[in-house]
């Protein structure tokens, strides 16, 4: 299986096997991974600076990771982001540390020089920036 849906399905499978409550940061309008996690009973919500996609049943809040509403993230085990822009990484690290959650990122490409090695046990390169 190839393409983005395979990536999102693999990320969701990896996260579902390790966490109880997760938040997707920078979700945008592609909610495939979030939908899989939501149906598995793990997803608390998606967050992004844009309005939620119309008709979505996935819990979705408008928030800016550069100035986050911490109450939206409290109680989650893991914050994850799929293909975030590089400028989001440091604010996501600070956010995850402030709410004591792991931070897992699937990058758009090979940007950034300070990213951790890919996590073992996943067939796509996921990077853990914060381990709570």
What does this structure look like?
The protein is an alpha/beta fold. The chain has a single domain, classed as Vaccinia Virus protein VP39 (Rossmann fold). Helix content is 23%, strand content 21%. It is built from 3 helices and 6 strands, in the order H-E-H-E-E-E-H-E-E. The protein has helices at 4-16, 32-39, 89-98, and strands at 22-25, 43-48, 60-62, 78-82, 102-106, 126-130. It has a 6-stranded mixed β-sheet, with helices on both faces. It is globular, with a radius of gyration of 13 Å. The chain starts with a helix and ends with a strand. The mean pLDDT is 88.
Short overview:
With 132 residues, the protein is α/β, with parallel strands linked by helices. The protein contains three helices and six strands.
The rounded Rg comes to: 13 Å
Estimated share of beta-strand residues = 15-25%
- Work out the helicity level: 10-25%
Total of domains: 1
Question: Judging by the overall fold, what is the CATH architecture?
Answer: 3-Layer(aba) Sandwich
Low confidence ranges: none
Largest sheet descriptor: 6 strands, mixed
Structural class: alpha/beta
The dominant shape is globular
Strand order of the largest sheet: 3-2-1-4-5-6
């Amino acid at each position: 299986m190839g393409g983005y849906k395979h990536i999102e399905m693999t990320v969701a499978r990896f996260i579902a096997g390790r966490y109880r409550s997760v938040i997707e940061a920078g979700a945008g309008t592609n909610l495939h991974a979030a939908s899989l996690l939501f149906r598995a009973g793990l997803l608390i919500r998606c967050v992004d600076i844009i309005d939620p996609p119309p008709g979505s049943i996935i819990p979705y809040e408008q928030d800016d990771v550069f100035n986050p509403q911490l109450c939206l993230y409290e109680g989650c085990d893991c914050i994850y982001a799929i293909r975030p822009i590089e400028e989001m990484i440091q604010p996501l690290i600070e956010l995850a540390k402030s709410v004591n959650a792991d931070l897992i990122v699937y990058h758009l490409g090979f940007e950034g020089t300070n990213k951790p090695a890919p996590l073992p046990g996943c067939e796509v390169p996921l990077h853990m920036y914060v381990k709570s």
